[in-house]
Amino acid sequence: MTGSNDMFALIQKHDGFSGTREGPRIDDLGLYLEAARVPTPQIEDGQVLIKVAMASINPSDLHFIKGEYGQPRVKGAPAGFEAVGEVVSGKGSRAEALIGKRVAFTVQIPTSGAWAEYAVTPAAVCIPVRDDMRDEDAAGHIVNPLTALAMFDIARKAGVSSFIMTAANSQLCKLMTALGRDHGITPICIVRKESQVAHLMELGAKHVLVTGSPDFSEKVKEVIKAEKPRLLLDAVANQVSADLFTAMPTGARWVVYGKLDPEPPVIPEMGQFVFMQKHIEGFWLTRWFMDTTPEQQMQAIVEVQERFVSGKWQTEVDAVIRLEDAMSELVPALKKANAKVMLVP
Ligand SMILES: NC(=O)c1ccc[n+]([C@@H]2O[C@H](COP(=O)([O-])OP(=O)(O)OC[C@H]3O[C@@H](n4cnc5c(N)ncnc54)[C@H](OP(=O)(O)O)[C@@H]3O)[C@@H](O)[C@H]2O)c1
């Protein structure tokens, strides 16, 4: 414990939704958050208090603090959905059994948040972490790795031989690229920076195409002709995505799981839904948790930890920023990052 009843946190300045649709880009963090000392959260039955060791920053956190995510903000509550830390207290038998354990967790209580020295969450959503798993991997154990496994499962069940990913230099796509490499399903990566090509090829991508490059459209045609990808896993959901989908063969599925670009796409050939059995659908990890059994979730968690510890996966980190420096250092770090930016108390 802190020795006092308060803690340092990055707290939200607004309630509810903003009604804007700008996407996760942030130029001035002070519009949404402030650094403050606030009361250390209190636990109720079934909950644990966690001393945060490291918190991840995901695009969903940025959508959220801007009031553009699927959940309303709570003014005065700390931001941050996901972290790793040590359980320092708990109420109820399941929660008490976790005291002293290092756990990965997502915050499920609107008045708590992971960008703080302490966070409260139900014991039921805490995942005890193997000692040999790095904090960098454990801090991002849930959102991206489980989404990577779940979406890769879509590729496996569909029996595709290749898949296209947009925003492919994201941590999530790096995990899916490695899964494609390990399971013989060809990853085709779309990025917007030439400097990211070589690293994604090293991780296992077969093709990396750069949007905005003069030969982008030509290369898309060539790669689609050669690989016949029928699955587009898309976090950008802009016109490039719609054009890729239009160029894909009969039976193509467009799975939208993010909206990094606020631009709404136009689908020029609606007849493809009639004559080419094309489909558009969404993926949200929250839904996956509702649709899978605890046994399936546990199997996925064990696989996630094994993949990180064995080196098949790695969370790539560009910067680790102290909470107290975040108001000035976070935005510049996010702007130049080619990998994750983490927060530590
Ligand atoms: N639906 C779900 O359940 C679920 C679960 C997990 C993650 N996600 C989504 O998955 C995506 C990746 O998450 P992450 O944590 O892996 O991301 P990340 O590591 O933080 O990386 C973000 C990536 O997005 C790219 N990007 C940002 N704005 C873009 C734009 N306007 N156009 C094209 N690319 C853009 C960046 O490209 P540059 O390198 O060029 O800047 C960067 O590579 C996010 O959209 C996130 O919300 C969804």
CATH topology tier name of the largest domain: Quinone Oxidoreductase, Chain A, domain 1
Number of domains: 2
Distance between the termini: 13 Å
Question: What is the strand content?
Answer: 15-25%
Explain how this protein is built.
- The chain is α/β, with parallel strands linked by helices.
- It has two domains: about 5-140 and about 315-345, Medium-chain alcohol dehydrogenases, catalytic domain (Quinone Oxidoreductase, Chain A, domain 1); about 145-285, 3-Layer(aba) Sandwich (Rossmann fold), CATH 3.40.50.
- It contains twelve helices and 15 strands.
- The strands form three sheets. Strands 3, 4, 5, 6, 7, 14 and 15 form a seven-stranded mixed beta sheet that branches. The protein has a six-stranded parallel beta sheet with strand order 10-9-8-11-12-13, sandwiched between helices. A two-stranded antiparallel ribbon has the order 1-2.
- The model has no long low-confidence stretch (mean pLDDT about 95).
- Bound molecules: NADP nicotinamide-adenine-dinucleotide phosphate.
- NADP nicotinamide-adenine-dinucleotide phosphate binds near residues 59, 170 and 171.
Please outline the helices and strands.
Elements: E1 6-12, E2 33-39, E3 47-56, H1 59-65, E4 82-90, H2 93-96, E5 102-106, E6 118-122, E7 127-128, H3 135-138, H4 143-158, E8 162-165, H5 171-183, E9 186-191, H6 197-203, E10 207-210, H7 216-227, E11 231-234, H8 239-247, E12 253-256, H9 271-275, E13 279-282, H10 285-291, H11 294-309, E14 317-322, H12 326-336, E15 340-344
Helix pairs in contact: 4-5
Defining key terms:
345 residues, alpha/beta, Quinone Oxidoreductase, Chain A, domain 1, Rossmann fold, seven-stranded mixed beta sheet, six-stranded parallel beta sheet, 12 helices, binds NADP nicotinamide-adenine-dinucleotide phosphate
